[in-house]
Amino acid sequence: MYLKNFDRFFSPLQWQIILTTAQIAHDLNLRAFAVGGIVRDAIVRENHPSPPLHKDLDLVFDGGEQAGMKVAIALHQLFPASKLQLHEKFQTAALSWQDADQDFEMDMATARREIYAYAGANPQVIATTLEDDLWRRDFTINALAIELDPQLGIKGEVIDRFQGLVDLANKQVRAIREGSFEEDPRRLFRAVRFAMRLDLEIATETYTEIIATTSSGIHDAIGGARLRSELLYTLAEPRAGAMFELLQKLGALRCIHPDLKLPKNLTNSFKHQWRRSQYWLHLLNQLENKTYAPLQLGLELLLSYLPHQIATQLDLGLAPEQKTRQIKLADLLINLPNLVSIGLKNSEITQNLQKFDTQTLILSGAKCEPAQRRILWRYLTQWQMVKSPLTGADLKQVGYATGKQMGEILQRLRFATIDREILTKEDAIVYLHTQE
Ligand code: ATP
Ligand code: MG
């Protein structure tokens, strides 16, 4: 297969960088390749009228130790606006462009072999050929490469060592070799991400191997920062809720904790809860002009299916505020029937709920019964925003002294407004007189 119009997947600056990279590699007597996601997605989106631009470009250089680093250093000199990072131990380098209209990263790796001392370990790296480099990759659809050319951009056929093109056409995610998940259990998450994102099936033998890996418990070795980043990558996907359901089916949630069980009910599955929480968050961000972080909220929703005593102890980099929220959320969910009971006035419900922050309320709204959810929504979008029709200055003008008592009066007026007992300033003055 020959990829046509490869340049349309890149911005003019990205394409200029790709051509320059190919020239630098040529001058250094190295071969340069685009590999992985950029090749796969160009094939998947071949007929897409306006494909999204890449934010993450993976290039590989074949020609000896530290080939990637050498090209990255030369390229950085020609594009000093980029930020250069070198990872000598892994024989890779990254250049990133981050400003208002350019936000992307180029990973420039030396074609390499990776040796894992134990499951989940960081690998030891040795430079090798592109063909060997493709062997260390995860799935056949991710082991596609295309050689770069200084004049044409790309040359020749797509390099397809493991029948990735056939798998892509047949909609299969297939591990390149046996033992892949044992070697790097992060691939469990990656398999699910590619399957759901690109609407592919996990190939039968790969599925069987995943189940064997998860039931052996070997994947428990993945933890800490690497597990956290897999979870956040997954949560960033439009179908994250469904992805976690599939991870559960595969037994892969054990990587987080053996007791983690997500709900599967038809109407209140994790997928629905995740969607609801993201939708509420999005609307409330607009309404309150805030920037509550969606991925963090997703992570908190996920962990809320563990007892908070366990969730708060996990090595997943939760901020102190997020740990406290796990405890508050558990408390809120237990007490919710009383706190939002039908017999209460709107102002009483407001008083009960105003002790909780917006994220805790969104999370409980995502998980609770529909009737309670409706009340939480009214509190978040209406009642919590209501102000007293009279301000402190208004009260001073009609003779009230400032201080604690005035605060209480303003609060009473706010609650009366929430209960629709008063609406206007005039109503408020009459209301105060009747109360005296
Ligand atoms: P995305 O669109 O999510 O960026 P991608 O395929 O580009 O998809 P990356 O995480 O950017 O994925 O990795 C680039 C390539 O590196 C992959 O296509 C794959 O070939 C290889 N790769 C990445 N992570 C692993 C891993 N854990 N094991 C084996 N190969 C990997
Ligand atoms: Mg990528």
Main pleated-sheet profile? 7 strands, mixed
Q: Please name the fourth-level CATH homologous superfamily of the largest domain.
A: Beta Polymerase, domain 2
Distance between the termini: 86 Å
Give every kind of bound small molecule, once each: adenosine-5'-triphosphate, magnesium ion
Coarse morphology: elongated
Task: Compute the number of helices.
Answer: 20
Helix content: 40-55%
Number of strands: 11
| Spatial strand arrangement across the major sheet | 3-4-5-2-1-8-9
Strand content: 5-15%
CATH names the topology of the largest domain as: Beta Polymerase, domain 2
The radius of gyration computed from the alpha-carbon positions, rounded to a whole number of angstroms, is: 28 Å
- What low-confidence regions span 5 or more consecutive residues with pLDDT below 50? none
CATH architecture of the largest domain: 2-Layer Sandwich
Classification by helices and strands: alpha+beta
At the first level of CATH, the class of the largest domain is: Alpha Beta
Task: Provide the domain count.
Answer: 4
Write up what this structure looks like.
This protein has 436 residues and is an alpha+beta fold. Helix content is 49%, strand content 13%. It has helices at 12-27, 37-44, 67-78, 130-135, 164-169, 180-183, 186-197, 204-216, 224-235, 240-249, 270-288, 294-303, 308-311, 320-339, 346-353, 358-367, 370-381, 392-397, 404-418, 425-435; strands at 31-35, 56-62, 83-87, 92-98, 103-110, 112-115, 124-127, 144-149, 153-160, 172-173, 201-202. It has a 7-stranded mixed β-sheet. The protein has a two-stranded antiparallel ribbon with strand order 6-7. The longest helix has 20 residues, at 320-339. The termini are far apart. The model has no long low-confidence stretch (mean pLDDT 93). Residues 36-37, 56, 58 line the site of magnesium ion.
